[in-house]
Amino acid sequence: MNFKSTDNQAFSKEILKWYRTNPRELPWRGTTDPYKIWLSEIILQQTRVVQGLPYYYKFVEQYPTVKDLAEAPEEEVLRLWQGLGYYSRARNLHFCAKQIWFERAGEFPNSYSELLKLKGVGTYTAAAIASFAFSEAKAVVDGNVFRVLARVFGIETDIASGKGKREFQELADQLIPQDNPAEYNQAMMDFGARLCVPNKPDCVNCPIQGSCFAFNNQLVNDLPVKINKTKVRDRHLHYFVIRCGESWVWKKRSSGDIWEGLFDFPVIEKEKESLEEGLAIPLKAVEPKKFPKKYRHILSHQRLHAEFSEIEIPDENRSSLENWAEQEGYLLVEEEKIEYLAKPKLIVNFLTDQGF
């Protein structure tokens, strides 16, 4: 049997049959609580399950209800998110929780179209919540689903294009069984995550191998098609770790750049690799001492190259340091409180290397 886009029942039955003998035990499976479903989906955006699972447990423990999350300070939410990256997700998560609690009396919208109106909730997340919590027959389409559909049905449209997204969503909505959307969506996600993986998919044990266009035409490694038009740029950062006794100088990153709302050190950025310029501190301090290790940190559209220098300020110059920090918008933080600051992974890695 070869699937066509009209063979809805045949395709769905095969996917569900595989899933029922190969289910993943995940804490948000089997629940219809939209809060926990929403929380898991936001955490798992751009994140593998194995990495996101500990964060899900931490958030559920710290904020068992949407009310708890809505009333939490943003810095606390960012600190709990630390290490997951894509921090706009955490800010949107917090904003959305407040939206639901303060504007909707704690009630989640119960339809796909209304869920899309929430901050940070896109088509995939809205479809997941709508189907898992409210049994709406709306198909989820993420990277895993793109891959399965492209390979099985031989779709060569660029998945990053608007046309591709519409084409895949239309097909996915045709295939989803009206009477069992939640289980089917979970099955499709798992099938792509565990069997029809990007590299070296397990075609030998695939139950729909005989009907797969890509397998039968030696195109498994060519589908799906994604044309990456995003240019990755390099940024060179020179951080200054300024300490006076047990106090460290930190700065909170503002909007308009990476890591908004997180804390890092005073920094000079250059367009080239050589970072010899010092930081203008109007104090009699010792010469900056460079840490030998340089750091490279990869973001979605940027490669960060960082080096760190240490500056020790004598205790007798503390008042001058405080005045300078206040003028520059920096904060003096006692060493024992540093762990409570929400910091980007790059800074966490540096501190870990220093045994902090």
From TrEMBL:
GO terms for molecular function: 4 iron, 4 sulfur cluster binding; 8-oxo-7,8-dihydroguanine DNA N-glycosylase activity; adenine/guanine mispair binding; metal ion binding; oxidized purine DNA binding; purine-specific mismatch base pair DNA N-glycosylase activity. Its cofactor is [4Fe-4S] cluster. Keywords: 4Fe-4S, DNA damage, DNA repair, Glycosidase, Hydrolase, Iron, Iron-sulfur, Metal-binding. Binds 1 [4Fe-4S] cluster. Pfam families: HHH, HhH-GPD, NUDIX_4. It catalyses: Hydrolyzes free adenine bases from 7,8-dihydro-8-oxoguanine:adenine mismatched double-stranded DNA, leaving an apurinic site. SUPFAM superfamilies: DNA-glycosylase (SSF48150), Nudix (SSF55811). It is an enzyme of class 3 (hydrolase). NCBIfam families: mutY. PANTHER family: ADENINE DNA GLYCOSYLASE. Adenine glycosylase active on G-A mispairs. MutY also corrects error-prone DNA synthesis past GO lesions which are due to the oxidatively damaged form of guanine: 7,8-dihydro-8-oxoguanine (8-oxo-dGTP). This is Adenine DNA glycosylase.
